[in-house]
Design a protein that fits this description.
The protein has 4 helices and 2 strands, in the order αββααα. About 10% of the residues are buried. It has a domain at about 5-90. It is about 75% helix and about 5% strand. Helix 1 runs antiparallel to helix 4 and helix 2 (about 40-60) packs antiparallel against helix 3. It has a two-stranded antiparallel ribbon with strand order 1-2. The N and C termini lie far apart (about 50 Å). A hairpin with a 5-residue loop joins strand 1 and strand 2. It has helices at about 5-20, 40-60, 65-70, 75-120; strands spanning about 25-30, 35.
Length: about 120
Amino acid sequence: MQFIIPFILSSFIYVYSFINLGNTVYRKNSNNEIKTNYLILLTEGLFGPLRSFYYSVVYNNSGFEYLKSQLFQWYNPYFTYPFVFCIFYFIKFIYNKQQNYYLEKKIKIKKNDIYYKVASSI
């Protein structure tokens, strides 16, 4: 369950931004009907950035410009998935840390209360 929520959220963000990027998922055929093909998300979406990086390194002798321009784009799955996972687990870490803080505070109050009762009965 911990893996499913950020994965689904990342997938929605990636698919939405990839569709908004251009007319790649929805295409008109020869009869002017709109056809959808989500296989393009796996082929061009996953292998396209790697291929572009390779071409940038081979033909421009540096992939730095490509990384700089494409690294923080939502339609790039190599940014979207790790970013959403990191944010999700950071929020979860902060939430658990807060819960532990208040739990420890309650335990400390109860311990002080017990000490007070024991001391007052003596």
